[in-house]
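Checked the freezer inventory, then went back to the computational side. Two predictions to log before the end of the day. The first one is the construct we discussed on Monday; recording sequence and tokens without edits.
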Amino acid sequence: RYELSPIRLVSGIEFTGQLGVSGVDSGQLRRAITNRYGSAPRLSLASDLTALLFDTLRDRGYRRPMVSPRADINRESGRATLIFNVEPGLRTIIGAIDVQGMPAVSRAGFLKQLGVKVGDPYEPEDLNARIGRYVDARRSQKYYEAQVLPTVSFSDDERAASLTLTATIGPRVSVKYAGDSLPADQLDELVPIERDGSADEDLLEDSTRRIEEYLRGQGYREATAMFTRSPGGGGLLITFTVH
């Protein structure tokens, strides 16, 4: 005995409820669904779509949203319109900001570069994107150990978020080569410090291995490479010695 049920596709998505508040846009909610599940998701995925909308609203600062789905099925075509009732609730704002570590600029300058201030809505995805751009800018200036770690705590009603930003700028990194020379057009591939924006131990060790493999591939069977890290020029000097 086989029990059959139709695979119904969602031909339309509609939104009702409190859609006029700041940060809640039906077009954005619709794009969140279509980017993940396409323009005609299966009706059986309604709970997954609801969870996605819930997370999207939380990323916009609404910590306790309510999202209720219902389906309107056309009996003739079998197609379904999925209707979500959205009640975002109260929006969480940044109530306090604590800057720790050494961001290399004043507290006000650091927060201005991040584009964050007390009273802004707490939007974690947007905040992480801004932090990423700030760190990328520092690393483009050869501060490869730069990082900003955000932590957050909420009031009991989750109306206010206390944000702590721990910043590390690290030393400015310079790279020097000693011993036998390497082809200039191969250096970015063999030692991708600038390309990857990193100077951690794993990358440096991989770089020495790539140098040795490259030279051995050129017939230098006894080629060796090593690196050292030392203070230099007010920053960090990495020297690769190649034989």
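The second is the one RB wanted added to the comparison set:
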Amino acid sequence: MRRSAFTLVEILVTVTIGVLILAATLMIFNFSNRSRNVTATARALQTALLVQERFNEDLSRLIPGSSTIKFHDKNPGRISFWAYDPEFTAGAEIGVRGVVYYRDETTGLVKREWNDRVDAVGVAPLKSLEFWPFMGPTGPLVRVNMVVSREKGEPPGPDTVHTFLGRIPQPRGHPSLKWKPVSGFKTAKEDEPKGVSLPGVEEEKKK
């Protein structure tokens, strides 16, 4: 006599195996999704920390004086200043360059202009970038606010918000030093700080 149906035990075993396979698949999917989420967050944080490191390094070489740094009132996501270049600094002569930081509207990446070049800082796009000056207990500072967004193809999740402070060096008075501009700004009308009074800069422009 041939059986025409499964027994209750066989059905229960089949269902149990199916449930276990489905559970294992969901666990693998969730683990993979969490792993991609962690990777996306780490990538965003890496870009934020790279911007912080590079910006503070440039800012530490800012030529002291309110006339050597420019905050863009209508565009807080842009900042420009004069910074000295160690490679062109020897003895009493200091080589200075124009430095610009901004968020590229097309790619969302942070761009750094230096030595007539424009390079991206980091690989993650930013949703917003702001530079705000304020007076701290130890002197003038720059507060930098960044919101790093997710890229296409990454799992949904919160944006990475990163804020840091940069110290603005103060004048100490070095009348014997000579400033020599090595490179300026690609868009001088927009980025060059107003009232630049560095010895040698105006003479260099007239040449």
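For RB: Residues 195-207 have pLDDT under 50 and may be disordered. The beta strands are 69-71, 78-84, 93-103, 110-114, 117-121, 126-136, 139-148, 160-167, 178-183. Let me know if you want it refolded.
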